[in-house]
Specification:
The protein is mainly beta. It is 14% helix and 44% strand. The strands form four sheets. The chain has a three-stranded antiparallel sheet with strand order 2-1-8, with no helix packed on it. Strand 10 and strand 11 form a beta hairpin. It is globular and about 40 Å long. The termini are far apart.
Length: 147
């Protein structure tokens, strides 16, 4: 966790999650791409973004949170690290936390015990931020590209 420079905080339901800001390459308003797209078809969603096909992973389902509808706060995040690229929906974006020595003194990183897809739970300013293990999620859930 020492190499974190910033966390993009977002919500899935009532829970605050986060991602390393360096790996979120785009934040897109849902109504720009998929206005009227049924939530029930989210599982098989693939979009062409910047001339490349992007697969989606349903983080809501992965963490047992129900996404009932898309609204004006719903965003698509594009995650990209090395050769891994995928998209996922978030209910809303909260904030960007810049990580420096001063702020890390007030952060406590807890290893989660009951979810293989959580890398850490960060206690900060009286709240819990859930940090998914995006590499493991991608490895386990992305459909390999056919050759």
């Amino acid at each position: 966790m020492d190499d974190l420079k910033g966390l993009l905080v977002f919500y899935l339901g009532d829970l605050a999650f986060c991602a390393d800001v360096r790996n979120i390459t785009a934040t897109i308003k849902v109504d720009k791409l998929s206005s009227g797209y049924p939530v029930s078809k989210m599982e098989n969603l693939k979009l062409m973004i910047n001339k490349s096909e992007v697969q989606f992973i349903n983080l809501h389902k992965l963490f047992g949170i129900t996404l009932t509808k898309f609204d004006e706060n719903t965003r698509i995040f594009l995650y990209e690290k090395d050769e891994t690229k995928f998209g996922f929906f978030v209910d809303s974006v909260s904030e960007l936390l810049t990580i420096d020595r001063k702020i890390t003194k007030f952060m406590e990183f807890i290893t989660p015990e009951n979810n293989e897809y959580l890398l850490s739970i960060i206690k900060f300013e009286g709240r819990m931020l859930y940090l998914p293990d995006y590499d493991k999620i991608a490895k386990d859930l992305l459909v390999p590209k056919s050759v």
